From TrEMBL:
Keywords per UniProt: Nucleotidyltransferase, Transferase
Regions annotated as coiled coil: none
Organism: Corticicoccus populi
Statement: the UniProt record of this protein carries the keyword Cell membrane: no
Record-level Gene Ontology MF annotations: UTP:glucose-1-phosphate uridylyltransferase activity
Family under the similarity heading: Belongs to the UDPGP type 1 family.
Gene3D superfamilies reported for this sequence: Spore Coat Polysaccharide Biosynthesis Protein SpsA, Chain A (3.90.550.10)
Enzyme Commission number, as recorded: 2.7.7.9
Protein's recorded name: UTP--glucose-1-phosphate uridylyltransferase
Top-level taxon of origin: Bacteria
Amino acid sequence: MDKMIEQWIKQYNQLDESTQQKLEESFKALDLDEISRTYEKVYVNPEAIDMQRITEVPYTSKEELSNDAIKQLEDISYETVMDGQAAVLLMAGGQGTRLEYPRAKGTFSFDGVSLFELQSRQIKKYEMNGVLPVHWYIMTSDINHEETIEFFNEKEFFGLPKENVHFFKQEHFPPISKEKTLLLTAEQKIMMTPNGNGGIFSSLASSGMLDDLKSRGIKHVFMNNVDNVVVKVLDPVLLGVHIKDDNEVTSKSIVPKEGESVGRLSLVNGEKSVVEYTELPDGSEDKFKNGNIGIHVFSTDFLSKIAEADMPYHLALKKLEFLDEDLNASKDEVLKFEKFYFDAFKLAKKHHTLQVDRKGEFSPLKNKEGKDSIETAYTDLKNEGLI
């Protein structure tokens, strides 16, 4: 044990006995084989993807649907929701760092209305005779879990029944140095960071939430991010398409602006995926017309399947603060490994995309100023009459 931990934690012998004992407990809980495999596969010997073999994903434009068709989809959706067969899954593990707001991002407010409240209002509208048929599953992270729960309690769950709101934490994976050593935080603990949005499926299962929603007879799960301020939670047209076509995954997209750096829903070597803007073949950036906006509906059966799938890690080079070999504070580029939820798309036998107009559908809150900023989000909220 000592030899192994000394290989992975170079500062180990410089630490006091109490700290060593605590580190040993954390170290034992790590899957060193998985960490080593990930390091070799993702950093040392990464597989190249032939990005020349990208084609447009099959899609339907909402504009092409007749009023009668839309009404039919909305009716299907409403009946399903009121029957308790649809739930909402929210990704809310981030902080408002880029907004210079040092709290859980979902607590950020416009005119006293938080991002969480904007979405809760849309869920509450399905309440009838004091009964709400919708359950809301919210994925947090270690950095904001307690704060998020406290905020919901302070706001009395925005009028939602407390038993309909479920919180669970995103799983974590250790970042490591380029020399394959673990990093220590300023508190002399092994550094762990969220394992990417693709960890949502295994986290849903390991937390018991997947079993919970299955036990409630939920068959369809609407997933979205916390920071799209105009998101249509449980969008009846998207949900209706998903149910009517019996899809495993149904995605919502927008036509990207020229040069807009959103990922593109596409086929890579015939498999469904999302290709980052920077990875598209030169000269083809504006040929792919389905920008990914992080809104998808999954069948519960498909969630069960992908929760057990071996989702690949992707490499992100990040500058993080940690203790160097002399236990001095340092900030340097390290290896952070993340899973992406769209890697699950290739496992879906039935996946379709609904393309919509961005107005009233997509207004991300990413920056303090400039594009996708507090100002642009506020303007869109005002224009949509949401505040």
